[in-house]
Amino acid sequence: MEEIVLGGGCFWCIEGGISGLRGVESATSGYSGGHVSNPSYEQVCGKKTGHAEVVKVVYDPQKIDLRSILRVFFTLHDPTQVD
Asked: Which candidate in 4, 10, 21, 72 is catalytic?
């Protein structure tokens, strides 16, 4: 298994779009960076913690390659949304 962490605005959209791909074992939402331990969703969305919403993707490279995952990611990603 391989894994990659992707940040692309709202993690619900990224998780939902990636998790159904053949070869993706899991897609787990979370936060990266920031200066607050264990922030709530509301704190992160309030832009006061310095965190970004991310999705950790675990995938089987024999069933799906990273390029295919990234192709889907960039159709879902909103580059204007910070977190």
From this structure: 10
